[in-house]
Amino acid sequence: MATWHPFTQMQGFSPIGVVRSAQGAWVELEDGRRLFDGVASWWLNVHGHSHPALVSAVSRQMGAFAQVVLADLDHRPALDLTDGLAAALPGDLRHVFFSDDGSTAVEAGLKMAWQAQRARHGAGVRDRIVCFDGAYHGDTLGAMSVGARDVFTAPFHDLLREVVCVPWDDAEAAERVLAEQGDRVAAVITEPLVQGASGMRFQAPETLARVARATRDAGALLVVDEVMTGFGRLGTLFAVEQAGVVPDIVALSKGITGGTLPLGATVTTPAVYETFLSDRVEDGFLHGHSYTGNPLACAAGVASLGLFETERTLDNVATWAPVFEQAVAHWAADPRVARPRYRGGILAVDVVGGPGGYLDPIGRRVKSEALARDLHLRPLGPVAFLMPPLATPREEVAWAVERLVESVDAALGPRSTP
Ligand SMILES: *Cc1c(COP(=O)(O)O)cnc(C)c1O
If DSSP codes are grouped into helix, strand and coil, which group holds residue 265? Predict the structure, then answer.
């Protein structure tokens, strides 16, 4: 085996199987086995696998041209997706900078904020970045710098920049830090309403609204990482809508192509964009990637936005609520689990009693119990969660929820009577 898997100790590793095809929420392996995609193929699948509208949009674009440099030249898929994103995002977020994935969308956003503040105030004036405990913004060095210091980043701590870290979902703490050192802060970066990778940790919309207000009052820029939450995962097209917040910069990826092709986008306002306009080349945003604005990915993005309208995808997610509600009620009566919760298209529960953290072995037990029931999960340490493609019919989601509940039960072993 020479394919090196992400986030994986390869010693002793063997894959579940080799994928032959995928349809809707189901992945079929070469041995004929079918698995329910309980993690939406790493949190990104929206309309189900192999959706015919996305297949034909990408095929059509492939027949015209697959990739042409998006510098000097423009192309229709990038222009159309720019328009589509500007129309879908709140406020005056309309300048779209394309890249390749979530990490690069975040990196571009951080660099954009940093350079804009430098242009406004001079070098070294606003030299701090504020982020949140337990954050995850990607695996490149800049993105790791503004994320949690944990098992994933431990080997690289000497390479990471110092940042100001504020407790999650604590509006007062954020307001205090911004009141005290706000005039030194270039940017505040946050995941909106839920921290994904650190364990599906929810935040009250009011907290995000207060963080946004305090950031603005301090004259800092608010960078919101909607890489996971964007495109419907929390039941609205973007999470910030639920808090009435318009960021200065927003990072998008994952669901942007409906989960079909890699693409990142960093979107900002005219106020930020205009700080880069000058007679000097070096005042521009001198950043880019070779596949910037890939036409196939942009075509998928345009088609995916269309499907949100024609298939009323968000209405479908809303039908899952009673199913999730039932699981939460079941777990609320079980002392072996904690914080059963759901929001939009995410159902999660903490399996307590172990050491906690990403290496907590209970996660691997839940995963293997689920796999034995044809459900593919990737628990985050003790946090078991379900995150199906957003177009999955409610009956199939109900099936997956039942299997998840059984898997958590089975992983814990027989319940002891007090
Ligand atoms: C997945 C994720 C990223 C990183 O995206 P990649 O495409 O894996 O580089 C960044 N931020 C959040 C919130 C994510 O969930």
Answer: strand
**CB–CB of 331/340 below 8 Å?**
yes
The mean pLDDT of the chain is 97
Q: Which residue owns the Cα nearest ligand 1 atom 8? A: 102
Helices (H), 218-361: 270-273, 295-310, 313-318, 321-332
Handedness of CA 265, 271, 273, 276 (dihedral sign): negative
**Res. 417: pLDDT tops 70:** no
pLDDT in tens, 101-136: 999 999 999 999 999 999 999 999 999 999 999 999
Helix (H, G, I), strand (E, B) or coil at 129: strand
- With a 6 Å cutoff on the Cβ, whether 226 touches ligand 1 is no
**Among the atoms of ligand 1, which is closest to the Cα of residue 191?**
13
* Ligand 1 within 6 A of CB of 263: no
Angle at 262 (CA atoms; ends 147, 272), nearest 5 degrees: 60
Q: Does residue 358 carry a pLDDT above 90? A: no
Q: Does the CB atom of residue 345 touch ligand 1 within 6 A?
A: no
Helix (H, G, I), strand (E, B) or coil at 403: helix
Ligand 1 pocket check for 255: Cβ under 6 Å: no
pLDDT of 413 > 90? The answer is no
Hey, whose CA ends up nearest to atom 5 of ligand 1?
102
The reply to whether the predicted model has a pTM over 0.90 is yes
**Residue nearest atom 7 in ligand 1 by C-alpha distance:** 102
Residue 192 Cβ contacting ligand 1 at under 6 Å: no
Strand pairing report for 95-99 and 249-252: unpaired
DSSP 49: B
* 106 within ligand 1 shell (Cβ under 6 A): yes
Q: Which of 227, 229, 261, 387 to mutate to test the pocket of ligand 1 (most atoms within 8 A of CB)?
A: 227
**Which pLDDT score is estimated for 1?**
64
DSSP 197-251: TTT-EE--HHHHHHHHHHHHHTT-EEEEE-TTTTTTTTSSSSGGGGGT---SEEE
